[in-house]
Specification:
Strand order of the largest sheet: 7-6-5-4-3-2-1-16
Number of strands: 16
Largest sheet: 8 strands, mixed
Radius of gyration: 23 Å
Strand content: 15-25%
């Protein structure tokens, strides 16, 4: 009877029967995979069945590797879906952000925007120019542009360039929406080209990183920029333990581009201004205590799926120590001026060092898309 039914179905529909089970013991698994595939399709829109099946197979391989490492494979499937669903559920009218603004100099203002999921985006702006540091996810682009209009920052003719700290989608995934040069480390460009955040590293979880990169870029609508330029100043000079790769100026503020050690990802860079007390620490210095529960829960999904968000934990610790020492030295140099080093982490609030620990500083304003309608 099963064979007759399958023959009738194949005569009307394009089906390839791989196997069938007359005992029913595999039915629950089959229903699970069908439901999972449909939920993935709802997140990414209409896609060819071949693509969905390929994605399902890769998810299954990832879940198997996590199982081999002692983790629950069902949690892996749940975490993948939760990642995409959370981004979708916090977009549009449900979008929000925490906003901080600081006067950096007589000419330059710094604005930090923390979206619901992923990394922060920063704007350094004068009356005549804007420079963006990181972009947030591509899926949030329209919501971000609506938010920027609330703060009078929508004239993209003033945007002269984008500086990308590293290749993760929550830091550069929206770069392709802007018609300006996008500057990044050559290692970051390699990761974007290979679609694998483990590229160039000694990661012991590289296959998990490879799947995660494909998954997050897909769900977050990663938009690759057309005009990519790499930092290329290599004169042997250092700032602390970090080689200096370049310099950028906006208004009266000069930023040094510092080469990372490959702790979080290969090609991650930091931005620093000694004179004006600015340090963009990317994902190596983060005030985790400033994250809301919702943001912390979302971040934990990535940590579970790749087992560690750092591709080299030892180098990540060295980076964090080096950046903290740089901030401490900046505070000492600025003592008596009434200023201290503003630490702009890749996630969380802009912070300062207090007693050796990060503490959120300034006023934090909540922007909510619903309240702007």
């Amino acid at each position: 009877m099963v064979e007759q039914l399958l023959d009738q179905l194949k005569s009307r529909y394009r089906l390839e029967i791989l196997e069938y089970d007359t005992t029913g013991k595999h039915l629950d698994d089959t229903v699970f995979y069908v439901r999972y595939a449909q939920e993935v399709r709802a997140l990414i829109g209409n896609s060819e069945d071949e693509f969905i099946l390929s994605f399902l197979a890769e998810t299954n391989h990832m879940a198997q590797e996590l199982h081999d490492r002692g983790f629950d494979p069902h949690q892996a499937f749940d975490s993948v879906l939760a990642t995409g669903q959370t981004m979708n559920d916090t977009n549009g009218e449900n979008f929000y952000a925490d906003v901080q603004q600081f006067t950096v100099s007589d000419l330059v203002t710094l604005s930090c925007f923390q979206p619901p999921c992923g990394g922060s985006l920063f704007l350094l702006h004068t009356p005549d120019e804007m420079v963006m540091v990181d972009t947030g996810y591509g899926i949030y682009h329209d919501s971000v542009m609506t938010m920027l209009s609330r703060y009078g920052l929508t004239d993209m003719r003033k945007l002269s360039r984008i500086l990308v700290t590293h290749a993760d989608a929550d830091h550069c995934g929206a770069a392709g929406f802007f018609a300006v040069p996008v500057y990044m480390h050559e290692g970051t460009l390699d990761i974007i080209r290979t679609n694998n955040r483990a590229y160039g590293s000694r990661s012991d979880h590289s296959s998990l990183d490879a799947f995660y990169t494909k998954m997050i870029n897909l769900f977050s609508r990663f938009n690759i920029p057309d005009d990519i330029r790499c930092f290329n100043e290599k004169n042997g000079k250092k700032r602390g333990i970090f080689p200096i790769l370049g310099r950028f100026r906006i208004g009266d503020v000069e930023l040094e581009v510092l080469d990372g050690l490959g702790g979080h990802t290969h090609g991650q860079v930091f931005l620093y201004s000694a004179d004006h007390g600015l340090l963009f620490g990317a994902d190596s210095v983060i005030n985790f205590g400033s994250l809301t529960k919702e943001r912390a829960d979302y971040s934990s999904l990535a940590a579970f799926l790749v087992t560690s968000v750092n591709v080299d934990s030892g180098s990540a610790r060295t980076e964090r120590k080096g950046l903290t020492e740089l901030a401490e030295a900046t505070d000492a140099a600025l003592a008596g001026s009434g200023r201290c080093c503003l630490i702009c982490g890749g996630h969380g609030a802009v912070s300062v060092l207090e007693g050796g620990k990060l503490a959120a500083t300034g006023t934090i304003e909540r922007y909510e898309a619903k309240k702007q309608e």
